Each structure stands twice: as structure tokens, then as C-alpha cells.
Amino acid sequence: MNTRDSIIAFVTDDGSTISAHFGRAHYYEVVTLKDGLVRERRRLSKTGHHTFGHGEHEHGSHSHHQADKHTSMTAPLAGVDALIARGMGMGAHQHLLASGIRPILTDLHTIDEAITHFVEGRLQDNPQRVHDHGPHHDH
Fold it and tell me: Which end of the chain lies in a sparser environment, N or C, as judged by fewer CB atoms within 10 Å?
């Protein structure tokens, strides 16, 4: 991927910090990069745990329901090359990959800092930030 010409999305609640959890964030901050510069930046509403009710970690026979949740959460991301969050569940991570969107789980906290790292090719993906919400997980 040419990081200098990309469309990247961040999960956020305020437009400046990267949310710690993909499913809990209220917005996407979608950034269009051209020649390494921000050409467009827009905020889109995002469905998530706050819109699906209290069953945040539904498992087992609800796997089809989980897939529907992930599909509705990623619907606004058509054309996005990468999604940046500070954490997400394994199901969301796999859904993004299957949708052709590269999930990047970062230790950075601010969108502006992550944009700079992304453009410079220095944004590190931390796979330890993927959580297993499966039926046999430990917290």
C-alpha cells in the first residue's frame, strides 16, 4: 500500500484521540491522504456496542448476529484502505481483513500523531491489542 496516497479511518469519540476499542467508538474519522498530505478529513457516525444494546459479548449461537454487527459497523468504510484503532475483538479484526480493510492496532493515542507515523511508514501494528471475545476467554 502506498501510504502517501491512502484513505484511512480512525475510531474515535472526539475526532482527535484514537479510541481504545473499535466496538465502543461512536465515530470514524476518515482521512484522505494525497502525496503524504491530508486532503480531506470527515467524521462519520459509527454503529457499535452503544447502538446494539447491552449484549456486548454475545457468543455461540449468536455468531451470525455478531457478523451482522460487524457488517453494519464497517458499512461506512467503503473505499477505506486501513482502519486504525487501539484495540478490537478478534471477530471485528477478521471481518475487516475479509472486507479488504487493513486493521492497524496502535499504541499511539492521537490521530494526528498516527497520521504522521502512517505517512512516514512508521505506524506499528501491535497484534497484542486484538482481544479474544470467544466463549472460553479470560480477562
Answer: C
DSSP E strands in 65-105: the ranges are 82-85, 88-89, 102-105
Read off the DSSP letter of residue 88: E
Q: How far apart are CA 125 and CA 104, in angstroms?
A: 5
Phi, psi dihedral angles at 60 (to 5 degrees): 65, -115
Residues 83-123 pLDDT 10s: 999 999 998 999 999 999 999 999 999 999 999 999 999 99
Q: Is 113 helix (H, G, I), strand (E, B) or coil?
A: helix
pTM: 0.80
Pairing of strands 82-85, 102-105: parallel
With a CB cutoff of 8 Å and minimum separation 6, the contacts of 65 are: 58
Report all structural domains of the chain as residue ranges with CATH numbers, in order of start.
6-131 (3.30.420.130)
